[in-house]
Amino acid sequence: MKIDEGRRRASETKIDEWRRRADEAQQALDAMFWNDAIRMYNIAAPCPDGKCNTIFHYWWMAHAVENLTDAYERTGDAKYERRLSQIYDGLLERNGGQWPNELYDDMEWMAIAWLRAYQATGTTRYKDAVIALWEDIQGGWNDHCGGGIAWRKTQPDYKNTPANAPAAILAARLYRAFGRESDWEWALRIHEWQTRRLVDPETGFVWDGMNRLGDGAIDKDWKFTYCQGVYLGAAWELYRITGDEKFRDQALRTAAAARATLADADGILPPEGTGDGGLFKGIFARYLGLLAAEAEDAEPWRRMLADNAESLWRKGRLEGRLPLFGERWDAPASYPVDLSTQLSGVMLLETLTKLRPNV
Q: What sign does the CA torsion over 154, 160, 163, 164 have?
């Protein structure tokens, strides 16, 4: 009993440490990236006079919303609720007064983010944004490639994991939130297409997309942590609802394939570039965190996340007072720091705070 109690206390102490680190990373995100003039985050730091904001990175801002929701759920601090309200207004203004855009994967991330924010705060307009986005997203399904949601509205015959696995996550969560059978049917339909078309049946590794060039080919050489994360996340959402071990096994198999294919010998995830690629590892960590928090025999996934977070904190920070993160989680960041890589690091740290106290 004394040994068990000692382990429990040590684990709780470690969780407290992750919370402190997550707080510091959130403070760095706010101090170095938030821009009151646009009520959004700058896309890089430093960004003198906001001149770095030449592109509207809609889907990056969706993950910023999720990170704010993480912090609000963890702390209950009203400052995060205020930031959610501000970024809602900033995003809506920047997007021309409406939520839909050209890219289905972008919209899915925004809907996932505002659904979480609505559930955390009860703010009705966040729910309204989700419903508007979800109605638009459903229009992306067509018969090209045997089904699936298109990546973008102007390219209806290109289907990929980024446009389908997050849609399955969204539909499943909408069903859990509101109990509409149509959402459940969408979740199953999308996930079944994804599994049949873009998952290696031998290994469980998830391919990126198909028919990008109009030739029907599958992009099997594009190997991203992102794709593994969203697919295992979708499978786990379906398992949560049904208890069907088929979905649990899909998630665990893909997690194992991702680690074997993409991580190094120490389990550290690879650099995948700045820009959009800077978000990939954080997304993988967020959804792997579901397994680490809820699955039986989850110790390997808890340990993998903890090892990556420890490497990020000790090796991957920019030297200086504030914890700023680059594309590598095993080597120091450098200026300018992309918002995407900072969000990714914050996601990882927030994920660690949600694990049971035995990491």
A: positive
